[in-house]
Structure formats: C-alpha cells, structure tokens
Amino acid sequence: MTRKMLMLVVTAVLLAACGLAEDDGGTTTTTPETTPPAAGETTTTVAGTTTTEPPEPIVIGATLPLSGPFADTGRFVRDGYEAMAAYVNEQGGLLGRPVELIVEDDGSDAGQAVSLLERLITVDGVDLVLGGYPGSSAAAQMALAEQYGKVYVSMGGHMASFQQGFQYSFGAPPLMGQWWYRGFFDFLASLPPEERPKTAAMMTVNNPVGAAVREGTVADLEAAGIEIVMDELYDLPLASAEPLVGQAKDRGAELFIANSFFPDGVLAIRAVYALDYRPKAILEGIGTLIPSWKEELGEEGDYVFSGTAMHPDLPFAEVDLLRRMSEDLYGTSSPPIYFMFGATWFDTLIQATEGAGSLDQAAIRDWLRNNEVCSFGGCLTFDDTGLPEPYSFLIQVQDGVPELVGPPEVATKDPVYPIPWGE
Fold it and tell me: What's the predicted TM-score (pTM) here?
C-alpha cells in the first residue's frame, strides 16, 4: 500500500469493519473482516484440490487506559488505533498482509502498562507495538521498548525520557509538557505590556506529566516576567480544588494555571466559579481537548486556554480522512483531538514499516531517522532523540469548542482575552 493510497478519499463504508469494543475495560482486538489481498497468499493442494490460504496477519500490540482516571482520554486514542487498523485493511493491508490490533486495558497504571506490554512482546509475540498513554506510562514503556528493540511511536514520556539515549522511541507527534503552553506565551508577547498579567498561580498534578508541564511553564513565566505567587502540587484523585483555587484568589493572581487532567481540571474550573475568582486568563492541561469538557462544564468551560500538537482545523488535507471517520464514530465531522493523536501514531508506524519494506525493527527505526513523515498533523522529521522541532498550537474553548486561536498563520478564531467575566 502506497502513501498515496493511504490518503485517498474513502467511501461511506470506511469504518464498517472497525468493530469498536465497549468501554468496559479488558482487552480489545481488531481483526480484519475484509478479504485479504492476493499478495502473500499461499496455496495448498490436497488430493488434487487447490485451496488458497490467507496470509498470516501482522499483529500490533498496545496498552491504553480504558478504565481508571485517564480513561476519558485513552479511549479516544484507542478509537484512533482501531479506526486506522480497519482502514489499512480496507486498503489492502500492510506489506501484503492484514493487520490485527490487540489493545490491553492497563487501568491507568504505569506498572500495569509495562507488564502488559512485556507480555504482548514476549508471550503473544506481537510484530509491532504502539505507544501508551499518559506520559507516565509512555515513559516506562519507552525503556521496555528499548530493552526489546521495538520501535515505539507515541506521545513520549516528556523531555526526560527523550534525553536517555533511546534509539527506538519517536514522538510523532509528541505531547511534550515542556512545550504545552508555548503558544499562549507567544500570544502574550504580542500584547502591550500593560495588558499582560503580572502575577500567576499554579496548581500541578503530582506525577511525571505534571512535572513536565510545570517545568516548561515556570520557564515561560520567568521569561515573560510574570511573578509566581503560588506553586502547589496535588495528588490524584483530587477530592476538591477549592482550597488551591482559594489560595490563588487570595493572592490576587491574574493568571491561573491548572496543570491537570480531565477530572481534576473540571474540579478546578468549578472552584473558580464557586469562589467568584476572576483572573485575566486560565490555562489548563488537557481537559479542554476532550468533548466531555463542554458536557461537564457548559458555559463555565469557555475561554480556557490550552496547548496541542494537533487540531482538526489545521490546514492539512489528510485531516479530511479523519473527519469522515469521526462522522461514522461520533456523529461529528470534527474529530476529537486525542482520536487524531492515536490515528497519527498508528499511521506513522505504518508508513515507517512500509518504508522499511519489512518488520525488521532496526530497519523501521532507521527509516524514521532518515525520512520525513507526513500525516494528519503535518510533516515531521526526527532528531537523534526521536523528537521533531519544538512546537505547540494554542487553543481556547469558545462556545464549548476547543478552537484553534494561535499562532496567527493557522488560527481559525481570534483569542478572547481577558476573560469577559459577566459580560
């Protein structure tokens, strides 16, 4: 299957073979339901009768949080993996063979993510592996993938993991916490100095993901000359965000930052309204990227800024394919952003395997290190650490939708700043 074939417009039955599993945890397996391609078939003659045997599938394994605190996001990544597996089979398979996808539920536990991925490699003998989520699981799995010499395409485990000399891990695209709010601080720099916030309060989830986001945010705040008047860590699950938000309000912080996941991010915004806190701007980790943000918060979820490495409004023609997939899966032509991430990680692995022309992991690794990958998030090349050049797009929730508001050359909406409280 060529790259050109992968990006052709598909018919309305594109995902009829997806067979998405229920969201009750456990293992999900996507197996090909279409007729296998002729390439790779074998024939057997018994007593004068010739039968055609389909080629063995290429098995791709992954673990994701389909239950637990990170399941709200992990299920969208799973959907992206499964949709692309079905699409690849519709287009004739990979290396002339159908693909079979196995996704294990790691329960949002990094230890489980490692043990389950190791079982997929050593017991189930999967041919290829895909990345896990969130960054804490990805970081642990990157080391395992290196141990077994398996190419690992994912969000990555944030900057620390990419600085360990791993040769088989690639962020394609990465979700780098250190880059997360880069677009917002670029936006602030475009404002007159008197309009920028002078003080900031920050609450950060106490795990590797939060640490990565906090690291970049502290550096960005210092570069912008914004004083940090509160910098607090919290553990999950978070029972209430009101004590932390109350501190931010009491200290008069003009910029409020919640380096959070979805459930704790929702609690933070609810606390902002409950305590009548009115900062100039709010930054939030990843919760705004999930459709449930609007369902949980309604109008209170509006005007919150965040970052992303992907967005359905980016000017890449390939996104049209994901729009059609999203229409089938979710009834909307605007694909959820984490669905896009999953689809892109899967597509990158497929491109690299086709480019290498084999399942040899070193050959796939070398192809990624020496070639540009163009997919649903644009075109990327990778440095010696497995990362592309730093970048981040700015989004802001407006009327319940995470709109692309920066940088100006790709923005489809203007950012709203300061927050129009009560207007």
Answer: 0.78
